[in-house]
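Exercise (ungraded).
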Amino acid sequence: DTGVSQNPRHKITKRGQNVTFRCDPISEHNRLYWYRQTLGQGPEFLTYFQNEAQLEKSRLLSDRFSAERPKGSFSTLEIQRTEQGDSAMYLCASSLSAGTQYGYTFGSGTRLTVV
Amino acid sequence: DAKTTQPTSMDCAEGRAANLPCNHSTISGNEYVYWYRQIHSQGPQYIIHGLKNNETNEMASLIITEDRKSSTLILPHATLRDTAVYYCIVMIGGGSNYKLTFGKGTLLTVNP
């Protein structure tokens, strides 16, 4: 297993366009998390899945954002009608169920630039 | 989850031990201390975690005070590749609704 994979690594889009990012977690991990990180800040939690169920969404996740994890495998994060404030690094992480002995494994992120 | 306080930045000479402090004075009995680091343009990387005993792995050592109100991450022989932002996070172990909440961390710069 090569870890958590995110695609694309970079995305430049015009304001108002829709974008979709993909995350492939470690195969045996049943939890998947999305975070957003802006310059100089730590990652901010957006949402997470236990298998295919989306269990929590941050208030940062406006109605322009939607995340799915069909069949509990890969996940997609879609942003509709992008705004310049959406420019950020979007990070995906996965873990085994919330046992404390398991840390999160993060992907390298997708850097979104809205122009 | 309890909040943590870390210095904004620290410097360390290559080959020396790097000691990164973290205060978590409001930590509760069932909260663990986690450390992650983030090298520029990469996702965060898990380093180590502990509850009350000191822990050591191939990357680092974690020293937690007896009252659990503070901890220190020790990189025994820092290299240039250890330059990164280091995050100290406390989180309740187990349960279905707990997730990592990051602060701004400490930027550790290892100098040649």
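Further reading is listed at the end of the chapter. For now, observe: Chain B touches chain A through 26 residues (CB under 8 Å). The radius of gyration of chain B is 13 Å.
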